[in-house]
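One record is given unchanged without comment:
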Amino acid sequence: MRRRIDSVRSEQRLRTDGGTASDAVQSETGTGLRRYLDSDAVESAPFWLPAFLLVGLFVYGAIVWNVVISLTDYEGLGDPEYGSFDLENYRLMLQETGSYSFTNAFVNTIVLLVAFTLVCLVFGLVVAILVDRDIRFENTFRTIYLLPMSLSFVVTAKMWLWMYSSNGGFVNRALGVVGIGPVNFIRNPDPNVQLAAIVFALVWQFSGYAMVVYLAGLRAIPDEHFEAARVDGASLVKMYWRVVIPQLRTATVSASVVLMVFGLKAFDFLRALYGNDTPAVGTDILPTYMVRVAFGDASRIAYGSAVAVVLFALAFSIVLPYLYSEYRRGAL
């Protein structure tokens, strides 16, 4: 009797649910599709999809096309020959020597990045520590020190072109007080003098950024750490060297990555500083070397594309480890 009642109830349930198991599966599939169509990503597609497609075409598509061009012998006249690809342009880059070679530009780029980043970090850390000590007019000083970063590369270059001028420039006037000079910084026969002048001008513009990053890191350190160091009898120098600075590792890494990216983007600074002769006496960096060989008299477009690929790889090698470390820390 009980089995007959259960059988009747089962038949009624099947008739109520549509009669078959396949109908139930179709119902669940329809519900899942409806839930997907009603999701935030699909509903907001008219806003983000056009930008996504445009960026994919004109940014990432252009990067891929540039890599393809670097494997050809395209010189800017006619259409590129895509029938055969080789690494001839990359081989020529490694074989060139002299003041205007790829090797010289690559070395200058590394020197510029390392010197510019290290000096910026040191200046920024020292100023951040001074500001953190509750100096008078802290907000005014911080604003003045950060103000150069708001200037464009072109404005900074034109200002320092006047500052470095041999005919009454501020730097040469200051050196003249101690009996040095005048020194032709921009057109000096020694490339090291030119690189030092470029690094100093860039440090003046971007050390304020390092100061702000370090100041935020200092303000995030609990006061208990300072008090514990004082109780242990640590001097002011030892307290910062052994207690404070090790806790600024994250600020140092993030500031270093941003500063190196700024250093790689210094093309317009050098262009405004040197004009059409960018740059003089073998102080090329990769961006200026790339533009000169690609759009100069020889018009070696494919060779310039190969230099651009190396420049992109260099920037990628700077950013990728940082993103990976942030992902490991759970910050992304």
Observations:
- Residues 274 and 280 are 7 Å apart (CA to CA).
- Confidence is low (pLDDT under 50) at residues 14-19.
